[in-house]
Each structure stands twice: as C-alpha cells, then as structure tokens.
Amino acid sequence: MGAKLAVIGAGNMGQALLAGALRAGFQASDIVATTADVAARAKLVEQFGVRVVLNNVEAVQDAQLVLLCVKPKDIPAVCTEIASSLRPDAVVISVAVGISIDKLAENLPEQQPIIRAMPNTPAAIGAGVTAISAGDAVTPEALELAQRLLSGSGSVVIVPETDQPAVGAISGSGPAYVAYFIDALIEAGVQNGLTRIIATELAIQTFAGTATMLAETGEHPALARERVTSPGGTTAAALQALDQAAVRAAISNAVKAAITKTKAIGG
Q1: Using CA atoms, how far apart are residues 213 and 236, in angstroms rounded to an integer?
Q2: What are the residue ranges of CATH 3.40.50.720 in the chain?
Q3: Cα-flanking dihedrals φ and ψ of residue 240, to 5°?
Q4: Segment 38-91, tens digit of pLDDT
Q5: Which of 246, 229, 227, 225 lies closest to 237, judged by CA?
Q6: SS (H, E, C) 38-62
Q7: Packing angle between helix 140-151 and helix 12-23, nearest 10 degrees?
Q8: Segments of the chain assigned to CATH 1.10.3730.10
C-alpha cells in the first residue's frame, strides 16, 4: 500500500516540511521519502521514522500528496519520471523557486492537480510562512488537504500565482535579509564596546520580541516605530542616519532584484 504523502528530494527544505507534516498529524507510517544524499537517508529513518526508497516512481504510487522539493533545474526530469505512476487525483505540490504551474503541467498528466508553494526556512521549527497558489484542477478538498500539510510548518496564505515572485522575494528570501540586519546590528554593538555574546542576545531578542509583538497586537510597524521614537531623541537620530543611507531604497531594490532573478529562473 502506498503512502499518503511522498516527499521527493528530502533535503533541508524537504525535511523541514516533512517535520511539519508530522506536527500536522500525518503519521510517519504514511510517509515515504526519496533523497540522493546517502547520509540523509539514515536521518530520515532515525529522526523521522519514515520509509525511504531510492526510486521516485515507487514513492509516488498511491500517494495522495506528492511534495516536490528538488531543485528547479531538476523539475522537468522528475515530473516526467513520475508522471505515469501518479494517481489522477494526487496533488502535486512544488516548492521549486520560479517554476510556474504551467511549466509543471508540461511534464505531468493532463488535469493533474498542481499547487505551487513558497515556504521559508523557519518552517524547520514550525515558525515559517508558506504562500500557495492552486492550479485549475485543484478541488477545494485537495486545497484543504495541502493547507493541512503545510500548516505544520507555520502559517499558510493563499495568493494568486502572479504574486509568487514577490512572495519569494519577501518571505522566501526574507530570512536572509533579517539575518543580514541582525548580523550588522551585532557588529555595531561590538564596535561600540559590547561583548559579542551580549550584542548577539540583544540583537536577536529585539528582533524576535518586536516580531512577536507586531504579530500578537496587529499594530502597524510604523506605529510601533513611532512609539519608540521621541522627538529629537536617540532613536530619531538613528532613523535619520538610516534614511540618509537610503536603507529603505536599498531594501526595495533588493526585493526587485530577487523578483527579477525568480522570473529568470522560470524562463
């Protein structure tokens, strides 16, 4: 009997989403995974308790959900490989950056339900966010099942597929931007006399606390910023320096660069 969930290419992101599936209530006995990484195979069995097979075709047989976590360049070959073994109602969920639903459909059976998803790395601890876009063949029941799967990795939002490049540039690449800013803040603390340990704790907890506060209160970030900024005070001076360095424009340009790259990957 086949698995309810097949994870094709269970690397870092595949394992993060697999862990989320278990948190969402999927049973390890109902999950099968494939990976080209020999070392990862033992981890998948020992840490997650799932079945590991070497053949993608074997993995997808009878699966209700097929999670494609392979690199974008490998998507056409993998889709072609598994196409004849998919159940007609199996929902194929791809997390490959830049690969559209139409591109996926080129190498899959006609009317195969397809969902394009963009998770991010905090999914590894169940604190991620995944944006999903459904193809025309995806039923409401299939969409609900996919949402259940991905909700174990964090929050799930549904967006039009045309928004996916922007989603990837904001939340997909976003953890790198946040880590970049935290690292810069830590270095600034060290340059101004703090120990690296103290600077690290201050920077990370400030980001974590502020994000949690905004999420729980629903307050607009601009209002939260204003509450910390006294007229003529230290925070006002710091923000003025950021504006003089055109930090907002740099962030906007970074997002545009990521969107451009996403579109280039998809051809």
Answers
A1: 21
A2: 5-161
A3: -60, -40
A4: 888 888 999 999 999 989 999 999 899 999 999 999 999 999 999 999 999 999
A5: 229
A6: HHHHHHHHHHHCCEECCCHHHHHCC
A7: 100
A8: 172-265
Q: How confident is the model at residue 101 (pLDDT cuts 50, 70, 90)?
A: very high
| Pair 130, 153: CB distance under 8 Å | yes
Q: How far is CA 44 from CA 47, 108, 161, 227, in A?
A: 6, 27, 32, 47
- In CATH, the architecture of 172-265 is Orthogonal Bundle (1.10)
3 falls in which pLDDT band (50, 70, 90)? low
Burial of 63 (0-12, 13-18, 19+ CB in 10 A): buried
Tell me, rounded to whole angstroms, the distance of Cα 107 from its chain centroid. Answer: 24
Where do runs of H (alpha helix) occur along the chain?
12-23, 38-43, 56-60, 75-82, 101-105, 140-151, 164-167, 174-191, 196-217, 221-228, 234-244, 247-265
Greatest pairwise CA separation for the chain in angstroms? 69
What residues form DSSP beta bridges with 117? Answer: 132
d(CA 259, CA 136) in angstroms, rounded, equals 24
- Give the CATH number of domain 5-161; options: 3.40.50.10190, 3.40.50.720, 3.40.30.10, 3.30.565.10: 3.40.50.720
| CA 234/CA 238 separation, integer angstroms | 6
The per-residue pLDDT for range 6-16, each reduced to its tens digit, is: 999 998 999 99
Tell me phi and psi for residue 218, to 5 degrees.
75, 10
